[in-house]
Amino acid sequence: MVHLRRGAGSVGLLAVLVYLVDRSLAALDGYAPGEDYPIYSEVPKGLSFTCDDKLPGYYADPETQCQVWHWCVPGIGGNSMYSFVCGPGTVFNQRTRVCDWFFKVDCPNAAAYYSINEDLYKDDAGNYIAGKKKASFKDRWRRHSNKQRRKRHDRTTTTTTLSPTTQDIEEYDDSDK
Question: What is the annotated signal peptide range for this record (predicted)?
Fold first, then answer.
């Protein structure tokens, strides 16, 4: 474990971080933003991507040169879709399912790697567990009613009736009021 002191250690760490960031951004030299790589600052409206025909998982969107990626989340009756934008100079790498430098990603062939999501949402035995359709209210009510009928049928009821005695009966006199 590295322990940094305030002062000299922090300045050294800052210098290393500046160097690494500067070196990373140098990889963008010679490329034109908006031409060589996309420059979206938010998810564009009207994209044609849909989760309807997809397994739950993470998907690059080639329509945005892969700068936008979609998370298809399993839910009741199908997938929900959440969309995100990778940071400047990065696009979604379908093979690794993370945002990466645009020049390291094969965006035109991203759809060929959509099947990589098949390893997600499985139990220890490898069975697919996501997106199971929840039973309708009618089906749940039918199962509940059948269960209640079986309980009533299986029960034994004993009724005991006590005869009233004079000791248990008190007369009520409301003449004082």
Answer: 1-26
